[in-house]
């Protein structure tokens, strides 16, 4: 499998990361500690720290990456996890990664505090990298999360939004963290500015592709494969790429969405209409476009043996559909 090939060069670092995540967020309060442990024990794809570790190897021209790179990978996963805690509250998700969400297991109050605590911990560890450029690059991500969430809330059930608006929102909610983390890794490797910016573009377009694939899976995947309830985005009025493409073909789909799924069978019918349209294929094509831009952006590492892994991780993102 592609994933095994990718993980082979970073398996030890990934193992250490999984161990460190549970200890790195050791909270003094037992409830916060329990909430943090609950989050990281649930696992996950760890796609973001994997990308950070691979970029670190590719920009260092060696397999043995610095402790700062490993810490950045951990910070990236903590920030991502904190954002999921808050997202789950807003979206009223009951499960995540096959287990109860924090607000469902504890309370909404504890979940808000746990998310805030993780953001605070990530900021503290970020500051302790003692690299102002990396701090500036990564710290903007938390602002972007809020921007993305606000944008998403303002356009719920609004089928007049454009694909460009969808891409902008997807950048703020998903791609911003991957892009900033890739650039942060390149900064720590002390490569030239152009290569730092190319690393950013790699992460940005990889992140956009990842989000588009996630949005396709929300309509065709199972709760088990998604790590959260299927069709949750659509139920919440979050109109994603496959839905937006399908809307251009179906007046009936527009009618159902404008009524905000008032009938019990409307969600199933809406999904059926999307499947009958070219929406899923057009969304997949869009994801592939972003993957190609990402691969083009990272060509400066092609003399490094890790370059192939950076291409494979791109393919792995697309293979999640199969």
Order of helices and strands: HHHHHEEHHHHHHHHHHHH
Kindly provide the name of the CATH class. Mainly Alpha
Quaternary organisation of the protein chains: single chain
The total count of strands amounts to 2
CATH architecture: Orthogonal Bundle
CATH H level: which superfamily? Answer: Farnesyl Diphosphate Synthase
**Average of pLDDT:** 85
Strand order, largest beta sheet? 1-2
**Shape estimate:** globular
Helix content: over 70%
How much of the sequence lies in strands comes to: under 5%
Amino-to-carboxy terminus distance: 13 Å
Number of helices: 17
Instruction: Assign the CATH topology.
Output: Farnesyl Diphosphate Synthase
Cofactor: Mg(2+)
Keywords: Isoprene biosynthesis, Magnesium, Metal-binding, Plastid, Transferase
InterPro entries: Isoprenoid_synthase_dom_sf, Polyprenyl_synt, Polyprenyl_synt_CS
Family: Belongs to the FPP/GGPP synthase family.
Explain what the structure shows.
The chain has 322 residues and is an all-alpha fold. The chain has one domain (2-319): Farnesyl Diphosphate Synthase (Orthogonal Bundle), CATH 1.10.600. It has 17 helices and 2 strands. A two-stranded antiparallel sheet has the order 1-2. Helix 4 (47-60) packs across helix 9 (163-188) and helix 13 packs across helix 16 (279-297). The longest helix is centred in the middle third of the chain and has 28 residues, at 193-220. The chain is globular, with a radius of gyration of 19 Å.
């Amino acid at each position: 499998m592609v994933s095994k090939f990718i993980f082979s060069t970073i398996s030890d670092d990934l193992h250490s990361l999984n161990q460190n995540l549970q200890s790195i967020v050791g909270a003094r309060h037992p409830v916060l500690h329990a909430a943090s442990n609950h989050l990281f024990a649930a696992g996950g794809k760890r796609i973001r720290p994997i990308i950070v570790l691979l970029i670190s190897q590719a920009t260092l021209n060696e397999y043995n990456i610095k402790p700062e790179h490993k810490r950045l990978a951990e910070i990236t996963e903590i920030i991502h996890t904190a954002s999921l805690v808050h997202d789950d509250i807003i979206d009223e998700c009951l499960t995540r990664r096959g287990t109860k969400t924090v607000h469902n297991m504890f309370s909404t109050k504890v979940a808000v505090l746990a998310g805030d605590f993780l953001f605070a911990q990530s900021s503290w560890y970020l500051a302790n990298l003692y690299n102002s450029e990396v701090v500036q690059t990564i710290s903007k991500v938390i602002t972007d999360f809020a921007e993305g969430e606000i944008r998403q809330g303002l356009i719920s059930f609004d089928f007049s939004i454009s694909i460009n608006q969808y891409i902008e929102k997807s950048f703020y909610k998903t791609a911003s963290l991957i892009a900033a983390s890739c650039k942060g890794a390149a900064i720590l490797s002390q490569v030239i500015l152009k290569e730092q910016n190319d690393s950013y573009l790699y992460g940005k377009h990889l992140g956009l592709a990842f989000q588009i694939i996630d949005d396709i899976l929300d309509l065709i995947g199972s709760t088990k494969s998604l790590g959260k309830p299927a069709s949750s985005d659509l139920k919440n009025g979050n109109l994603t790429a496959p839905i937006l493409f399908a809307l251009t073909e179906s007046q009936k789909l527009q009618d159902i969405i404008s009524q905000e799924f008032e009938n019990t069978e409307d969600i199933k019918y809406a999904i059926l209409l999307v499947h009958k349209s070219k929406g899923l294929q057009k969304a997949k094509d869009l994801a592939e476009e972003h993957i190609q831009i990402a691969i083009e952006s990272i060509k400066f590492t092609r003399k490094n043996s890790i370059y192939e892994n950076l291409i494979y991780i791109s393919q792995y993102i697309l293979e999640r559909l199969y």
